[in-house]
Amino acid sequence: MAVLLMMSFTACSFVKAGEVNPSQNNSQEEEEGDRSIEELKAECPEYFELSSFKGIEFYIWEMSEDSFRCGMMSGTNRNKTDEEIWDLANRSLSITEAKKILEYQDIKYQDVIVMPVIQPVSSYQYEINDEYWAKLKKVFDDNGMAVNIILE
Predict the structure, then answer these.
(1) Mean pLDDT (the chain, rounded)
(2) Number of domains, the chain
């Protein structure tokens, strides 16, 4: 059974492919110091130029237990390559930062498809299954983001 969460987010801070940005925080305790919208605009301009015409593809992964990072791309009529998805780890956002960008750009939840992935930069082991989808829904709910879930 495939599951889609409908919502919106983005990513930022470019680093060359294959490198990990050491300035990125990876724990939810550190998220309290998230960047302001002005800092995000300066550091991540590409995420303020995304088009929601064909929807927003939001990718989320877990770096350690209950510590999530995310990235976003404009929707297209093609599947994204592994390399494109993996590159998001080099410009990732916390959930709080993603929410700021979502609200700033006035992107509606129904325009976004949430896709959990497993990033090579994370050594944390998890399986994307029904239990994991429930965990993600709780994370979004806890962050005050209403999420539509579509089960196929």
Answers:
(1) 78
(2) 1
